[in-house]
User: What shape does this take?
Amino acid sequence: MKILVTGGAGFIASNVVDGYVEAGHDVVVIDNLSTGKKENLNKSATFYEMDIRSPELPKIINTEKPDIINHHAAQISVPASVEDPGLDADVNIKGLINLLEASRKSGLKKIIFISSGGAIYGEADNYPTDETYPPNPLSPYAITKLASEHYLYYYHHQWGIDYTILRYSNIYGPRQIPNGEAGVVSIFMNLLMHNKECTLYHFPERPSGMIRDYCFVGDIVEANLLALDHGENEKYNIATGVETATLNLFNVIFDSIKTIKGDLDDGLSNPRRAIARPGDITRSCLIVEKARTGLGWQPTTSLDNGIKATLEWYTKHQ
Assistant: This one.
């Protein structure tokens, strides 16, 4: 089938594009290259350099006539959304509406939408958290993701466009950039590889840092493949269900780098501390049982193995 992937030059979506191409699909990529990179583009995909808010977007969708749109393009940084909520809403909401309006006029079958399980639930009372918990977003970024889910429901109800919503936890892996929900992996890795000190953000009562659910991008690709034919008009947490404190994540990265680098300064093993930033939440961990039953998906990559694979890619491309 023909799949249009927005943000397909970015960290996660470029990996998804590779997975779609490998599976034999015809893939079209739209990306404005604000955070995506040309070197991430799959050579077999058709590429349009364009912002999802562009008035030219409907022409591309009408010309290409994709069967499915996989919508990854977004303003992805929680701190940036706090600093400029207007821009965050402009990209994440107006961009989606532009896409949906073009989709309904072109006869699109389905949209796979990337939401945020790592942010949308806020400080959840039910923990770990499943999809039945009422979202309580605590950042403009999370608010736009929830609003987008409501728009998808409306366009399905009014215009018959099917959707599958994937609520990602904190994703890491090859091609990752520092900004975004799990950018800390890339930040730690880059600093330590250059023998520089890291900063660990935390709440006063949690000196080991915030709790997150880190999922490897290779597992994410599999979820996006399964979502092509499953999960109509449902939302799914895509995560590991495993809690990891920031300090534990740092230690895994430090030990992996020390193994291959050898001369890593032991004085860097204790990162400096800084107070959590506006929009941060203390803990997030997701239940993924619905994805197991509804999509046939489950994570298979441990944090240790995922960090090693990410580091292997990093050392070859830096």
Remarks:
- The chain has a mean pLDDT of 95.
